[in-house]
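Annotated sample (chain length 477).
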Amino acid sequence: MSGFSDYGNYDGLGLGELVSKGDVTADELLDEAIARTEKVNPQINAITTKMYDLAREQIKRGLPDGPFKGVPYPIKDLALHISGTVLSNGSRAYADYVSDHDSELVSRYKNAGLVLFGKTNTPEFGLVTTTEPQLFGPCRNPWNPEHATGGSSGGAGAAVAARICPMANASDGGGSIRIPASSSGVFGFKPTRARTPMAPDKFDSWNGFSISHAVTISVRDNAALLDATDGPAPGDMYQAPRKERPFLDEVGRDPGKLRIAFSAVSASGSPVDRECIRAAEMAAELCAELGHDVEEARPTYDSAMLMRSMLSFMAADIAWSFTLREEQLGRALREDEVETITRHYIEIGRAQSLFDYTRVKYEFQKGVRDIAPFFDKYDVFIQPVLGTPPPKIGYIDMMSEDLATFGERVGTHSPFTALYNMTGQPSMSVPLHWSKEGLPVGSMFTAKYGNDALLFRLAAQLEKARPWAGKAPPICA
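Output written by the structure step:
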């Protein structure tokens, strides 16, 4: 079965253009994606559900003339429904749950011409900064398989880094697009809250912290994909501010002289690895070289209170998800069906009252408002994505009974990203630095609420100045 040998030389838009012009067929691209999956997936465990037959049926039915016509695209195995497929959410409790409909975002992907050929590895319900579920086993980093690829979109990051596909669906509730993008050396963009829909099953997740989008090799793919999926669905309770023009048109547009702050200090006081500090410093230096005004500064806010609030919201959402599953099964979940840390979240969620939830929400809203003035002064804030380079497999263990150590390790690994899920701001991980050990270490750029366009303009400028598409890991298709 032959594919398209030049597949790796194109991004998603490039492949879609070839299909639209008739220079290559969607079947040839799918053949190549399958061949690449079979070649490298046994080493990294990025694709956990293969949907090759469904992908062929999708092509056979005819593809819309969207910007990504015929481009192979995997979906993260969390929250998004694809009719007739198992949606496991990385959990043994959902291992045989079959969706009977497509999520709105999945429909938009199909309308853009994307061919959905598999699902990617994720930790149980996306609850942790590594991807090592008991259901599927660990996803391994293509740069060094002894190390993790981040979470919770770890399979997506690994699949794109290993060049199985030029882009992959991902979602971000506390950093889960940016963390694997940083860990895998690819570009990850978390849009403004509600920029993409969660219909018809939810109008938000984790109190609006979580949002779906993608990790990609190129900036322009990421922008064009957001154009294809941007906008509310009927019944949504709120929506992101409207864009001025297509995000793809922002790529290559002059960002102007920006006011940029940078800091590598963790608000929680946790230590930050020197490689991560260097990533932020190098990003700031590059921005200064590009003509922007850069200075060291950071906002002040009650980090501990915000993280307690986030835990409450997450726990309530997770408890509800597992309660629904028990109602579907008509029985209580067995101990071996739920991971230890997840069960802890469920217990916290079920113990909360509506009064508790309302109190936490008001405290949280006040804390978030304390941050807003900082982004009136600065256009962009640069930080490390993570507090450490990618840890080794097993270091962060969802089956641990030692909750204090688990919390400390997660907090030290990822002290930066979750804030912007709480504020709803657009935030991106840009692959500008690799450690002495050869592991990618991303730099995080965050803009004011609703200003996704500015980040795309800056990202394209950074991509041109320090191209990363040619950097490929040792495990590469």
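Annotation: The radius of gyration is 21 Å.
Annotation: The CA atoms of residues 107 and 448 lie 29 Å apart.
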